[in-house]
Amino acid sequence: MSAIFLYFVQQQDQLLHLFFLLLLSCIAIAIGSFLNVVIVRLPELIQNKNANDPSSNVNDPSSDASSDASSDASNNSIDSSKTPTDSRRTSIDPNRTSTNSSKHSTNPNKDSIKNPSKDSSKDSSKDSSKDSSKNPNKNSSKASSKPSSKPSSKNSSKASKKITSHTIFRHYLTIIKSLCFPPSHCLHCKQRLAIYDLIPIISYYQLAAQCRSCKTAISFRYPLVEILTLLLSILAVIRFEFSLQLAPALLLIWALIVLAFIDIERLILPNCITLPFAGLGLIINFLNILLPFQEALLGMIFGYTFLWFIYYGYKILTTKDALGFGDIKLLAMLGAWLGWKILPWMILLASIVGVTWGCILMIQGRANKDTPLPFGACLAFAGIIALLFS
Ligand SMILES: [Zn+2]
What we know:
By secondary structure, the chain is mainly alpha-helical. It has one domain (5-389). The chain has 15 helices and no strands. The longest helix has 51 residues, at 2-52. The protein starts with a helix and ends with a helix. It binds zinc ion (ZN).
């Protein structure tokens, strides 16, 4: 009797696990869909903010846009063009390999890469978003008119510094609002997407990778992010099971997916993700969830200082930027989450991936030795591997 009872208990336990796994899979795919929105809208929001605020600077480490962009995004001719800024499931032909795959740009060869600010304003102009890009053209014209009057720009920068502390909350609220509103729509024809066009993975194939109304091609990145989110989330469940470590591990994986794809498409690693997540990593490890707090703190310090020395060492020797401040902050964030012991292996793995990637692109003739690579994406990949397999 007791053997039969035990058998049923075990079966019930397995069924419960299976149910949770299915539930988590559904949540992971939905999260993947949301991550796509973040990948598209967040860089636009940052660029609009920078256009409005002349005191912020892409190369300024404290700026939201500080990133690999400091490794000279203006020279970029490959990565941002592979899947350039697109809209919610629209406006990009992923099969294109030309430097500018935007169908809407009037002169793709001229404005694509050499002037990323122009490019971004065009991309964002596709977005009818009222929150994230009220009118990028207007904004940019405002921004261009501001620096002409130096006193006013100084005053505005002083004012912005004064209110920085109490605007952090508002800043993040604006980001969240911009990510949620307006609802998903085609950025080319502005047609709002119907619910049946929003089913992750399935809708992409049902629509044959085209917008239902205007037939603009949809980037393959959409199903790719959704599938990746699903697979990596399942791997996290296998690695951590249903323990206390699972939730932070999933959060880190989702953040790294977003950072990797934003870096691949825009060559930026937004501060509004890396900095809060570095803090969150410390808090989580302060509670001893993933590893001891001392390891996490040392990881953050070593991660930052190691790449900082490489950055300035390379700059002194060659007067060029080996990487961006975004990479430095990302490694600090990974150190805060995963500790200092794993850092050398992560850097080694990211470097191997980066070199291999660069070689493949050069063999294909899509890059030269001056083409910046999204090293942040390589670091994010190494971070996910370290989290799941260490
Ligand atoms: Zn459309």
